[in-house]
Amino acid sequence: MKRSHNRSRNKKTGKADKNLDMADFQSATTVHDKKTHSTSGAQQPSLLSSLWSVLFVISSALIGFAAFRNTLTWHLQRFWGASGDFWQALWDRLLDVTGEDPFTFWVYGTTVLTVAVYWIFGGIYTILDVTNKPAVLRRYKVQPGTNEPVDTKRLLQVIGWVLFNQIVVGMPIAYLSYVLMKWRGSPPLRELPTFHWVLVEMAVHILMEEIGFYYSHRVLHSRYLYRFIHKRHHEWTAPIAVTAMYCHPLESIFSNLLPIFLGVFIMGSHVATAWLWFSLAILSTLNAHSGYHLPFFPSPEAHDFHHLKFNQCFGVLGVLDRIHGTDTLFRNTRAYTRHVMMLSLIPPREAFPDESKCSSKQRN
Ligand SMILES: [Zn+2]
Ligand SMILES: [Zn+2]
């Protein structure tokens, strides 16, 4: 917006210069008059109006955001208030059965929950990939013609490595998380946190994951670490959901598990909040690797593009990619045009087909 405004200002200055050249043929006083007129007439109001418009945009965005946030949290809080007792009662019942040893929750609980979430939802995606049905889903493929159907031998290799990472590698890390949380201190096990506090913590978890994942991932793309560690994850240039945790054990620890745990440690989260966050993070990474850009799902285009091109889109949210300029190539592609949550049933490849390159140029 700012850029277009500058452009129009330059145009105006250009016009004023032209007027000035023509006025050279006229008397000096007329030139002087014209010059002062063009300066005060064109530049001052445009500067003022640009300041006003910037102020207007910022203030209305802030007001809009505050109103939206208040409305949203008010509704959610109402929902939570009504169901909060229900969740607390459920939690109490669980604790009555399991006992209240934090070790059970942080180590066994976390492992069982994360493995279950990963394979229940990853399993659904895998059934679609293996059977190649329902046919309508082919239209939502990010890279059509890939894994249709998926190669069974490759899939079994993935399942084996992922289970290894989740159990053999994951359980000692879960134990480490228990030790760290015991040292750090976390809220009483029996008392669930308030809804607003869960939201605050989630924001921190998401931010910390972005930082932890982006930088560890970029380091993994350095020559030696890529060759010896990260290459395994990149064997899939067109990923499927369950390849999300298909990687070298060291990558699993430093790039997958620790960035997700970082915010939990910093905030000293309740184990229930941590479980909610781990589940969301798993669902998010399964979607990012799924190879399907489904309606009403977050767009998987950026990470899919990373698997296709290797040196673009290292982050989860894309904020750090923008700051570090590691998405410049991506932003010049059709995939970037499709990188939105689809709010209709039209497949992204049909809504934004490859052929219409004109509009792609226009965008950039
Ligand atoms: Zn990946
Ligand atoms: Zn990578």
From TrEMBL:
TM regions (residue ranges): 47-68, 105-128, 155-175, 195-215, 260-283
An example molecular function term from Gene Ontology annotations: oxidoreductase activity
BP GO annotations: lipid biosynthetic process
Location of this chain's protein in the cell: Membrane
An example Gene Ontology CC term for this record: membrane
Keyword Metal-binding: no
Principal location: membrane
Occurrences of domain Fatty acid hydroxylase (ranges): 203-326
Keywords: Membrane, Transmembrane, Transmembrane helix
Cross-referenced InterPro entries: Fatty_acid_hydroxylase (IPR006694), Sterol_Desaturase_Related (IPR050307)
Protein name: Fatty acid hydroxylase domain-containing protein
Species this protein is from: Zootermopsis nevadensis (Dampwood termite)
